[in-house]
Amino acid sequence: VLSESLASAVLCKNTSAVDILLAKGAKPDVHCLISAAQSDDVEIFKNFLDHGLDPNVPVPEPSWEDGYNYGWDEDSTALSVSIRNRSRGAFLVLRAQGFISNLAHQPAGFISALIAACQIGDSTLVEQLLSLPNLPRKQARIGEALEAAIEENQHHIIGQLLSVGVKPTIRCLELAIQNQQLTVVKLLANYM
Fold first, then answer.
1. Within 10 A of 123 (CB to CB), how many other CB atoms are there?
2. CB 110 within 8 A of CB 65
3. What are the Cα distances from residue 91, in Å, to 36, 82, 152?
4. Whole-angstrom Cα distance, residue 120 to residue 115?
5. Interatomic CA distance for residues 129 and 135, integer angstroms
6. H helices of 139-181, where?
């Protein structure tokens, strides 16, 4: 209960409540770290990283009976939330501490970060992620990055993904048709 309350206090940027809960023994968990990334509270974010929390670990299902739904996808990580919410402070901390380059060894975190970068149309970050050594191109979920780019109308990202060998799925084609993106439909058809 204390950790859940801590995550909520961080998300609300209530530093007094955070201090009280930490003093009462609340242990920061992944939910707390993601809350700090979402609120872009760099000081608290660094503090939680110092507790050994990994920002590339997906959010676990709530273990409490009436767990609060933070609105995160089941595969959200602190890194992907910092990207998606454009939490520059948290993102810069993660980049400086090497967590982006570590994604090559954490497939779940890699996909989550790639999808987030595709959603917001950050072509520089997409390029950086796609250039990681041992890029897990064969991962079953890598097509979701292409789907995210199509859903968000990120044409430049679609081209980037296709150029490195990400294969479009039927779902990609369906999304482009539903969104009446005829140029994208033609492009995807060339890669199917």
1. 14
2. no
3. 11, 6, 21
4. 9
5. 8
6. 143-151, 155-163, 170-178
Cβ neighbours, 10 Å, residue 182: 10
Return per-residue pLDDT of the chain as tens, 192 residues.
788 899 999 999 999 999 999 999 999 998 899 999 999 999 999 999 998 998 988 877 655 455 555 666 667 888 999 998 887 889 889 989 988 888 878 877 888 899 999 999 999 999 989 888 776 556 668 889 999 999 999 999 999 999 988 889 899 999 999 999 999 999 999 988
pTM: 0.84
Query: Can you read off the two tokens belonging to residue 159?
Result: 């081209």
For residue 102, the tally of other CB atoms under 10 A from its CB is 17
Q: How far apart are CA 138 and CA 109, in angstroms?
A: 15
Measure the CA–CA gap between 159 and 58, rounded to whole angstroms: 27
Q: Which residue has the tokens 């501490």?
A: 97
Alpha-carbon distances of 48 from 26, 45, 66, 181, rounded to whole Å: 12, 5, 24, 43
**What backbone phi and psi angles, to 5 degrees, belong to 7?**
-60, -40
Q: With contact defined as beta carbons under 8 Å apart, do 34 and 62 qualify?
A: no
Contacts 24+ apart (CB under 8 A), 132-135: 132/101, 132/103, 132/104, 133/104, 134/104, 134/105, 135/104, 135/110, 135/164
